[in-house]
Amino acid sequence: MFAFTWIGTALASCAATCACHACNMASREVMRRSARLAYCVLFTLAMVLAWVLRDFAKPLIDKIPWIVHQAMGTGEPSERWYGQQAVYRVSMGNFLFFGLMAVAMVGVRYKSDKRDQYLQHGGWFVKIGLWLLFNILPFFFPVSFVNGYGWVARGGSACFLFVQMLMLLDFVTNWNDAWVDKEDERYLWALLGVTGGAYLGALGLAGVLIYFFKPGGAGDCSFNVTMITFTLILGLAMTGVSMTPSLARNGSLFPSAIFTLYCTYLCYSALVSEPHDYICNGLGQRINAASATTLATGMLLALVSVVYSALRAGSNTALFRFTSDDGAAAEQPLLDDDTGRNYVKEEGTSAGLDGPPAPGMSRAARTADEAEAASKAAEDMTPVTYNYSFFHFIFALASMYLAMLMTGWGTGAEEKDLIDVGWFSVWVKFITQWVTAGTYCWMLAAPTLYPDREFM
Would you list the DSSP string of 95-162? Predict the structure, then answer.
């Protein structure tokens, strides 16, 4: 019986060791193949940490005397104060980490740069240690300094939203151009179908907004009705501008339909951000009981938006990536080999391969050595597949945006189990909607107004 127990224990220990080794190998392989995915994991951990500290950190922060002491001038700080301070400090730590990485990676253009190997794709134990240090260090900073960072984070978050808008403009126009250039009737019909579907989706979503945000018996909900109506007017304006004869060559109905749908979505997002006890927020009152689900959904949507924006802005969007001499930029999937090995073309011959063999070395051995050297030289001159510095800069801005999402844009109005709720959030989203519509109309009008200048 003892022998069976010992064998079982040994097998269990062996299985656990193998599992740990496999996980370690898998994690190292993921980091080797895609550093971007690893940075996404760090940002995800930061978001979860900010939420946990915001909703459950009062007993912990209450034990940090220098923080509480500086807040006692107006009496005992509220529980919201603890949550906002915790979020600000985690956000600041991640901003410092990604900002430092952005500065360190400035000017990396080729794989031969040592920073590519040792900073962007290597040194993970050191980088994780730095990330932990930067998340702890801000808890030693004075309250006044952290509150000052909160004001800076508002501006950084606005820049992040502007980058998101530029990416959407770039994505939609490239989509339209790609399908039109196919010169295939099927793609034109598909373009027409997506255009009609976007307009119908915008009208349908507007009807849903009227139903939920002007509930029966709620009294005066003129603000919500006005904003929904104005959103539809923006859609008509963008469509009208795109159909204007003098501007039609710069756009089409397809981008206008997509932006009409997007502006309607921004209206929905703004109205959902209204306080859940607001009488005209019928949807908020219905989902208020399921606060945990609401929080999880909100965090997931925010995380997807932030991570996708960082990945696309730093990696895939033509606005923000390096281009080759012929103007073609390399597209690279998230899980493809970040090290650039897929982009090295090994040549069968190179300068010096046809020369006389070295003394004592066979021609085959010389050819193999020189081919390897030529391959290494070609790899060293391979351009990086995305802008490392800008990639980290976007994550630094996203760290600021995280602070605004978790604190109601610095108003301290964010409640437990809620994210991105409050009147400040409402107005930020409506302003984003107006700027988006205005930028799209300007993109259509600028080439005609200034024919001598080159626009996107």
Answer: HHHHHHHHHHTTT--BTTSHHIIIIISS-HHHHHHHHHHHHHGGGGS-HHHHHHHHHHHHHHHHHHHH
